[in-house]
């Protein structure tokens, strides 16, 4: 049975209307549904969005508050090419006028895993300290942190599965509990067969630093193995002396292992 020409045009018009309706769906309606669903989940992070504009596939948020951490303005754009891998992908950009600032590509897989690539993020050391759990001794730090991730995969449980990139702390300094000019610290991030590893080093400053930190995401086991030595900073040298006698090269060795609580 052949459709009459007017029925074909009617079907094509209806399909075009539905497509336009889909493409022009306001981002505010979608984000409102998202925040409402998150609020219903147990142990879900508190998320607030303000000033949402644009269509869902190319939207903008003036202010995003996640667990008390404020970001924005933030723009996103849908990446339809991610569908070729069965994922829903977005390109994100935090405008340079804000701190943190950055950009990157995110995608969510069918199982809930989060795929990250080409991520560049900058924030201040003070901002990071505000988000860390309470430390035994109050710490004041200065400088800027730069995170560059070539690739990362985060499982549905929130634990990293793969990691490739670099974390840098530039113009690094401590004001409390002691004064130290750390200058430039670097952590090379990588995935290995035994888990995730961060290789630490310095590029000048009061602290001569080397070593690595390892984490097995499956078990939560971690191991920290650092070598620390002061450069021309008596206060820092006295603080490191509390760790015990240095080795033959003058380094204090810090070794610690344990297990992180898994979700």
Automatic annotation (TrEMBL):
GO biological-process terms attached to the record: protein secretion by the type II secretion system
Family (UniProt): Belongs to the GSP N family.
Protein's UniProt keywords contain Metal-binding: no
CC terms in the record's Gene Ontology section: plasma membrane; type II protein secretion system complex
Protein known as: Type II secretion system protein N
Pfam families according to UniProt: T2SSN
Keyword Ribosomal protein: no
Compartments in which it is found: Cell inner membrane
Signal peptide location: none
InterPro entries registered for this protein in UniProt: T2SS_protein-GspN
Keywords: Cell inner membrane, Cell membrane, Membrane, Protein transport, Transmembrane, Transport
């Amino acid at each position: 049975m052949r459709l009459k020409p007017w029925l074909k045009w009617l079907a094509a018009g209806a399909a075009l209307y539905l497509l336009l309706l889909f493409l022009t769906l306001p981002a505010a309606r979608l984000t409102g549904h998202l925040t409402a669903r998150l609020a219903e989940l147990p142990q879900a992070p508190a998320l607030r969005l303000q000033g949402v504009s644009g269509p869902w596939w190319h939207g903008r948020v003036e202010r995003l508050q996640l667990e008390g951490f404020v970001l924005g303005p933030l723009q996103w754009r849908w990446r339809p090419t991610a569908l070729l891998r069965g994922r829903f992908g977005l390109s994100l950009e935090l405008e340079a006028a804000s701190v943190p600032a950055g950009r990157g590509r995110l995608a969510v897989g069918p199982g809930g895993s989060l795929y990250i690539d080409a991520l560049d993020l900058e924030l201040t050391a003070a901002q990071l300290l505000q988000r860390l759990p309470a430390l035994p001794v109050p710490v004041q730090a200065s400088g800027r942190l730069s995170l560059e991730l070539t690739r990362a995969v985060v499982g549905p449980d929130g634990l990293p599965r793969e990691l490739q990139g670099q974390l840098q702390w530039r113009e690094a300094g401590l004001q409390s509990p002691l004064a130290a000019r750390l200058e430039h610290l670097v952590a090379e991030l990588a995935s290995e067969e035994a888990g995730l590893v961060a290789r630490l080093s310095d590029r000048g400053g009061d602290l001569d630093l080397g070593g690595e930190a390892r984490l097995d995401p499956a078990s939560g086991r971690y191991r920290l193995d650092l070598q620390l030595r002061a450069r021309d900073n008596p206060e820092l040298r006295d603080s490191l002396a509390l760790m015990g006698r240095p080795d033959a090269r003058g380094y204090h060795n810090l070794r610690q292992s344990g297990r992180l609580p898994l979700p």
